[in-house]
Amino acid sequence: MNSRSLTPDFSVSSQIRPEDLLSLADKGFRSVICNRPDGEDNGQPSAAEIHAASKQAGLGFAHVPVTSRDVSPADARKMAEALASLPGPVFAYCRTGARSEALFEAARRLTAETPKTSNNARTYDVVIVGGGSAGIATAASMLKRRKGLSIAIIEPSDVHYYQPGWTLVGAGVFQPQVTCRPTAQVMPREVHWIKATVTSFAPDESRVILADGSDATYRVLVVAAGIRLAWEAIPGLTEALGHNGVTSNYRFDLAPYTNKLASELTSGRAIFTQPPMPIKCAGAPQKAMYLSCDRWLQAGRLKDISVEFNNAGAVLFGVAAYVPALMEYVKRYNIQLNFETKLVGVDGLARVARFEQKTPEGTKIIEREFDMLHAVPPQVAPDCIKTSKLAAASGFAAVNETTLQNPTYPNVFALGDGCAASNAKTAAAVRQQAPVVAVNALAQLEGKPLTAAYLGYGSCPLTVERGRIVLAEFSYGGKITPTFPTWILDGTKPTRAAWFLKDRVLPWVYWQDMLKGREWLAAPKALAATAQQKA
């Protein structure tokens, strides 16, 4: 088998055999197209044999046989239809790969010549905008409940990240590569992956418009577009990142630099910042600080390092029950807390950070020299949401906080960091939101009442030292909502059990449970029972 890639989503090869299909699936392919008529050569596996092996490997399959590279318009249309209906990336084969290549090019020309209007857009049962944790988990949960759904996920990125792991990359606990995988590898195989960027929504027409001018229509839309990190909102920050002691665990490529800076700093001033809410994982800015301080303490260097936490907010953590444990570590590490102090500028070459600080006398600008600056940018709704009819006043996707359904468009749901619900924006929240959206979106498709409720659960494993975590778990209104009884794990205290969850259990749960539609400790609550409890 000699294969070659024509695009990131399409490869061709010579004849394959049934035993090759599992290997193709492992490489991230999600569909196979056979372009050979049966019986061309002695010993040639039939299309039915390859189809059966494809099905066993979890791959889509189509048979578009041609006898020559001179492709007819009818053959091109059949190939285009197969490519449109199958989830990508696609692997096509013939005797040498030449016919598959010719068919692909003919299908691509045919598609390019077709006017891109809403009349030509394919309609899916479900379109999901965003192939991050929220989008993939929702698709997997829906497919677990109903096989055969036509679902499209619109996601431009080739790489999928486990972002909660970046805190531990910055502390030298994880290697960066364990926090990322190819998107093709984590995308549910039954889903049609549209590798594109969404520019706008037309909810009155049940359409999503893409950057290339094409669109996708839907019966139900799930908005899981995430949150945008507005690095550019702080003058000088973008240019300074990755140099002169300026870093952030909020970027995959910079978390290793955090580790380098913390391991090499022996004296001076280390500043850690937190922007105004909302942000994803509100505890992450101080997690980086605690883990760095613990490293310096263990190495005997902390006495020579002045540590500041400049927080645009007015409190250390939004749920008061967890603050006493955190304050013990603030005292242990001799951290200077500066509340209502917002980062507004960075001069990387001079190693100076500018802050806007509220005081009883009014707001003033202060400048602080630094040897290490861990900066967290302001975070805003994606442009495609905040400029659309789907947006709440905050710019994020409007929802009923319990059902996660849009209040104006009942066939639209939203979850994750791009959702306007008042829960904490964490991966733990997504893990509980995804099954709720899956159940309610299916009910909407069937014209039935919604039955699932999200109660606002979120979790923030606050890494206060290497080997111990304060496991904050809470729901709407800051209500403490522990998963385990206190005799197993008391989340208000630093424990090794919580570190074991963060270090060993939760990454496995993410890759093998959440993204595959398994809902361990995340089954949706019944909406009727929830209403009765509130009454």
TrEMBL record:
**Top-level taxon:** Bacteria
Under Gene Ontology molecular function, one entry of this record is: quinone binding
Stored InterPro entries: BLH_phosphatase-like (IPR005939), FAD/NAD-bd_sf (IPR036188), FAD/NAD-binding_dom (IPR023753), Prot-tyrosine_phosphatase-like (IPR029021), Sulphide_quinone_reductase (IPR015904)
Task: Identify the Gene3D superfamilies for this entry.
Answer: FAD/NAD(P)-binding domain, Protein tyrosine phosphatase superfamily
Tell me the ranges covered by the Beta-lactamase hydrolase-like protein phosphatase-like domain, including all copies.
Answer: 4-104
* Reported cofactor(s): FAD
Q: Does the keyword Transit peptide apply?
A: yes
The protein, known as = Oxidoreductase
Location of the FAD/NAD(P)-binding domain: 124-251
Q: Which UniProt keywords apply?
A: FAD, Flavoprotein, Oxidoreductase, Quinone, Transit peptide
Q: Is Transit peptide a UniProt keyword of this protein? A: yes
The Gene Ontology biological process terms listed for this entry are: sulfide oxidation, using sulfide:quinone oxidoreductase
